[in-house]
Specification:
The complex is a heterodimer of chains A (108) and B (122).
Chain A (H helix, E strand, L loop, with lengths): L3 E4 L2 E4 L5 E7 L7 E6 L6 E5 L3 E2 L7 E6 L2 E6 L9 E6 L12 E5 L1
Parallel strand pairs in A: 2-10
Antiparallel strand pairs in A: 1-3, 3-8, 4-5, 4-9, 5-6, 7-8, 9-10
Chain B lengths: L2 E5 L2 E3 L5 E8 L8 E6 L5 E7 L6 E3 L7 E6 L4 E6 L8 E10 L5 E6 L3 E5 L2
Parallel strand pairs in B: 2-11
Antiparallel strand pairs in B: 1-3, 3-8, 4-5, 4-9, 5-6, 7-8, 9-10, 9-11
Classes of the chains: A mainly beta (108), B mainly beta (122).
């Protein structure tokens, strides 16, 4: 089973600041990695697929990079609605398609 | 508009059974792989199960193998999760989600329902 480790667990920033979130895989997942955003009380929503592609309707302030075992999600200038929990998930080879434990992005 | 609506959750005693349903609309259900993902209260997401469009290929996380069964009725555009021998650790919100394949050949969960809460407790 591939383990995804997200860091930091919590990130405290102010609106307008830049956020950098990390996801590390226990073995290579190539580029088969997604990022999801979950706002309080809501279902998750797809942000990024194939490690670096924004899903439909996702603002350009969200960008992502990485391949193999190390991945990064960057939010260039935080908006109030961006404060949420972010999860990475691999879709490499066979299941289980594990998620990371998440990074909570909170307002400082 | 794509819609996914889960139902069937509730309070159940340990060892009991529940069947979750996910009614869908707004896309070609019969052509889409579908997944169940759960989230224990205050915790992260856990991928539970996947079923491909034809229904013959299914996959499960180890913790539910032999207890849960994913299925689908393409004539009713509905996804199911039969959960038997339920345990306290199965307590969670259960989401159904639609898989979408991209040009890379990988698929990701592009639409999610709002979830249904399953509580396993005596």
């Amino acid at each position: 089973e591939i383990v995804l480790t997200q860091s930091p667990a919590t990130l405290s920033l102010s609106p307008g600041e830049r956020a950098t979130l990390s996801c590390r895989a226990s073995q290579s997942v190539s580029s088969s990695l997604a990022w999801y955003q979950q706002r309080p009380g809501q279902a998750p929503s797809l942000l990024i697929y194939d490690a670096s592609n924004r899903a439909t309707g996702v603002p350009a302030r969200f960008s992502a990079s990485g391949s193999g075992t190390d991945f990064t999600l960057t939010i260039s200038s935080l908006e109030p609605e961006d404060f949420a929990v972010y999860f990475c998930q691999h879709r490499s080879s066979w299941p289980p398609y594990t998620f990371g434990r998440g990074t909570k992005l909170e307002i400082k | 508009e794509v819609q996914l609506l889960e139902s069937g959750g509730g309070l159940i005693q340990p060892g009991g059974s529940l069947r979750l349903s996910c009614a869908t609309s707004g896309f070609t259900f019969s052509a889409s792989a579908m997944s169940w993902v759960r989230q224990a209260p205050g915790k992260g997401l856990e991928w539970v199960s996947l079923i491909y469009s034809g229904g013959s290929s299914t996959y499960y996380v180890d913790s539910v193998k032999g207890r849960f069964t994913i299925s689908r009725d393409n004539s009713k555009n509905t996804l199911y999760l039969q959960m038997n021998s339920l345990r306290a650790e199965d307590t969670a919100v259960y989401y159904c989600a639609k898989d979408r394949y991209y040009a890379s050949g990988s698929s990701y969960l592009d639409y999610w329902g709002q979830g249904t809460l399953v509580t396993v407790s005596s």
